[in-house]
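User: Teach me something about this protein's shape.
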Amino acid sequence: MPEIAQLDIFFNETRLKQLITDVLAEAKRQGATSAEVDAAVNKGFSVQVRLGDVETVEYNQDKIIEITVFFGYRSGTASLSDVRPEAIRAAVEAACNIARFTDEDPFAALPDEALLAFDYPAIDIYYPWNISVPQAIELGKECEAIALAKDKRISNSEGVTVSTIEVWHGYGNSLGFVGVIPVTRHELSCILIAKHNDEMQRDYSYTLSCDPSMLDSISQVADQAAARTVRRLNARRMSTVRAPVIFAAEEARGLVGHFVSAISGSSLYKKTSFLLDHLGKPVFPKHIQIDERPYLPKFLGSSAFDDDGVRTRNNVFVKDGILNSYSLGVYSARKLNLETTGNAGGVHNLFVSTGENDLPGLLKKMGKGLLVTELMGNGTNIMTGDYSRGASGFWIENGEIQYPVEEITIAGKLQNMYGNLVEVGNDIDKRGNIQTGSILLEEMTIAGD
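Assistant: First, the predicted structure itself:
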C-alpha cells in the first residue's frame, strides 16, 4: 500500500483504535505484563508569501506510534512510523529488550483502572479548514498587500504564513482503555519591517484557532501588524531604574507559564522548583484565582483525557492567592505520594482571574512605568525563581505611552513578582492554552544604560 494511502486510513477513530489495539496485542504476545501505546497521525500544509511571491509551500503528513511495555516494574519504550505487522513486531521486540535490561522503578506502571477515561465525552475542537494551497497563497498575498499599503514607513515584509493541520491523537493501554481525540489548528501570521531614516523595526500579528470561522480577518491581522511595527520606530534606550511593569497579554502568558512549570510534577519530584513544599501557602495576592477547564468547546487546550489516559477534570490550582494543588500525572503523583490531577502532558485551558481594567485601564492605574510587548532570551530559573529577560516595549507616564524603548533587561524573583501582582487585565489573549490578560506588577528592576 502506498505510504500516503496507508496513512489516510488512520484519520478515522475506528481504524486508529484498531491500530492501537493491535500493537497492545503484540506486546502481550511477546510476554509484557502490561503496555501502553501513544499514537498520533497528522496532515496539513503551510504556505509563506513574501513581497507578492510564494516563498515556501510545505506539506505535512506523518504518523508516530510509541509503545511502552512493562515487565513488572521494568519498562522499555520504542517508536515506529511503519505500521506493517513486521514493523510492529520489531518495535515491540525492541521495547521488550530494553525493558528486560533496565532497573526496576516502583513508580513506573499503568494508572489505576478506576482513573481511566472509559466514558470520555467528545471534545468540540475538530474543524477542518476547506482551503486549498492556491487559496491559502492568495489569502496570504492579499493580507500582505493590505499591510504594506498601511503606512509608507513599512518598507519590507518577512512574509505572511497561512497554515492548517489536522491531528488525530490516540492512547490505549492493556487495562482496556483506548481513546481517540481529533483536533485542528489553523493560523495566519504577518511579519513586517518599518524604516525611518536609518532605523529599522520589526513586529508582527497573528490569528490562531481550531475553527477557521473564528480566525481574525486578514484586514485585522494586517492592520495590527502594521500598527505594531510602526509604533516601534524611534525607540530609545533608558537608564536603569526600578519601576512598575505591565506584561502585555501575549507576554503575560509566558509569565504564568513559569508558574505552571514550577507546580508540575517533574519539577517537584526532581526538587527543581521554587514552589516545592508550597501547598497551602500564599503565592499570589488574595484576589488571584487560577483554575483549569479542560472540556471547553473550541479552546485549543481542551482534552478529555491526559497522556496517561486518565480523565481530565476541572482543577483549582490557586484559590484566593494560595497554592491549592500541584499539576500531576500518574508517575509524578506516585513519586510525591499524592494523587494524579489528570495533567500528564500539561495543563488544559488554564484561566487566570481578571480585574475590571483592560490594557488602557491598567496603564492609567500604573501611571508611570514600563509596558513590555516583547521578551527575548531564556533567563528564567525555575529552581531559584531568578528571572532576567531581554525586553522591549514602551515607557509610560501619566497613564499614556510616551515612547518606545529597546535593548533593556527586566529582572526580579518570580516569588516577588507573583506575590506583588497588582492586577490582571480583562484583555484576555485566547490564542493559547493559558488564558490571561495583561499583568501589572508592582515593581521590577529595569536595566538599561
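Now, about its shape. The chain has a mean pLDDT of 95. The first strand starts at residue 34 and ends at 50. If you'd like, I can walk through any region in more detail.
User: That's plenty for now, thanks!
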